[in-house]
From TrEMBL:
This is Protein-arginine rhamnosyltransferase. Pfam families: EarP. It comes from the Bacteria. It catalyses: dTDP-beta-L-rhamnose + L-arginyl-[protein] = N(omega)-(alpha-L-rhamnosyl)-L-arginyl-[protein] + dTDP + H(+). One of its GO terms (molecular function) is protein-arginine rhamnosyltransferase activity. Keywords: Glycosyltransferase, Transferase. Belongs to the glycosyltransferase 104 family. Protein-arginine rhamnosyltransferase that catalyzes the transfer of a single rhamnose to elongation factor P (EF-P) on 'Lys-32', a modification required for EF-P-dependent rescue of polyproline stalled ribosomes.
């Protein structure tokens, strides 16, 4: 008799932006592709999903994409049979009917809360601990992270080899960039910019424009475009727009599918990223980067920023560490970063090396999907 695979349900409530759906979609695909598991992904906002996966039919309550059963999670969810493993992403509240169905099972499911990513030390102590209970069903904390003892980071099998090969293949990069309408001048510095609104942007663009070396800045459609338009002194910026100011070429890109975005990061010399998922993907690109952290109440995000910086800058010389700390902190506080950028440029080779080293080190950890599967195997 064929072995019965445990069924997995992942619940994703889209709070805002694309991080919630970005992470859960990646995880669902990986559990199917690499672990052969039957996975249902419940999403309350299919429009957000459609932005990162254009094949999504927003009118379908049930559809299959990349082997994942995608379910629209309606306001009222009844008659759902509970799976063997249930993941509530980012502390989303499961429907009561569904929790009742979990409790009604003969063998209660493994129920986990997949938390937000943080480099803070307390995460290690809390990862895997029991959380609340619903009737007979125990919930567990599952924390992604950068250090041993955490749940690790999402990383598909073979991703780093794929990335290396692509970065060594100038023609593949040229073709990819061309497919997005990007035709960089030879030797130009390529930078991608994905960020929230940021008053500090103008100071960076001033410095890039005045630099002797040319820069081609690639800006996917999104929240930062207003600040870019303001600096360019144009009314609005549509996809495909290209503007040149002294040494700086600014180009607006469409919002592309997740795998294309990865390739974009791999092509660039420097990536400005935000939130959670693009932040991790830029680390896998192994190039110097800048993180616009998601702002939280009472500035608790600043602790997360400092915790990550402490790990990321550990092996750097004091000058390079100071430059990166200054740049990242100023950017996340929407302060001018022109001077910090110039300081950072002075340490470029060291920062490139550090980005490679960090990626290698992180790549040695078990990836998050494998860690979840292992958690389940230890639990049964
Ligand atoms: O969109 P975000 O700001 O998401 C945020 C964070 O996750 C934050 O922690 C969370 O609390 C909040 O949402 C609700 O940034 P993030 O996490 O980088 O997600 C963006 C996703 O969009 C990521 O999966 C990459 C993807 N993407 C594309 O697929 N194509 C693109 O062109 C771009 C720019 C991004």
């Amino acid at each position: 008799m064929p072995e019965l695979k445990p069924r997995w349900d992942i619940f994703c409530a889209v709070v805002d932006n694309f991080g919630d759906i970005g992470v859960t979609w990646r995880l669902a695909r990986q559990l199917v592709a690499e672990h052969g598991l039957p996975v249902r992904l419940w999403v309350d906002d299919l429009r957000a999903f459609e932005r990162i996966c254009p094949e999504i039919d927003i009118d379908q309550a049930q559809q299959w994409q990349h082997g994942v059963e995608v379910r629209h999670w309606p306001a009222e969810l009844s008659h759902a049979d509970a799976a063997d493993v249930v993941i509530a992403a980012f502390a989303c509240q499961l429907p009561t009917d569904y929790m009742d169905a979990m409790a009604a099972r003969e063998q209660p499911p493994l129920w986990m809360n997949l938390d937000y990513l943080s480099a803070e030390d307390w995460v290690i102590g809390c990862h895997g601990l029991p959380s609340v209970k619903y009737k007979t069903v125990q919930k567990f904390f599952f924390f992604p992270g950068f250090q041993p003892g955490t749940g690790g980071l999402l990383r598909e099998r073979g991703l780093l080899d794929q990335r290396r090969q692509f970065q060594q293949d100038a023609e593949a990069q040229r073709q990819f960039l061309q497919s997005l309408g990007i035709d960089p001048a030879p030797g130009v510095q390529l930078i991608s910019l994905f960020a929230y609104e940021n008053a500090g942007l103008a100071s960076w663009l001033d410095v890039l424009a005045a630099d002797a070396a040319p820069t081609h800045l690639l800006v996917p459609e999104g929240r930062i475009l207003g600040d870019v338009a303001h600096w360019l002194k144009v009314e609005n910026l549509a996809v495909g727009a290209i503007h040149v100011r002294q040494s700086l070429t600014v180009q607006v890109l469409p919002f592309v599918r997740q795998d294309q975005y990865d390739h974009l990061l791999w092509c660039c010399d420097f990536n400005a990223v935000r939130g959670e998922d693009s932040f991790v993907r830029a680390q896998w690109a192994a190039r110097p980067m800048l993180w616009h952290i998601y702002q939280q109440d009472e500035d608790i995000h600043l602790d997360k920023l400092d915790a990550f910086l402490a790990l990321y800058t550990k092996g750097l010389s004091p000058g390079a560490a100071e430059a990166i700390n200054g740049l990242w902190r100023a950017w996340s506080a929407s302060q001018p970063i022109g001077e910090h950028w110039l300081a950072t440029r002075k340490h470029w080779p060291e920062l490139q090396e550090n980005a490679e080293k960090w990626c290698l080190e992180q790549g040695l950890q078990a990836d998050l999907a494998a860690a979840l599967v292992q958690f389940y195997l230890n639990w049964i």
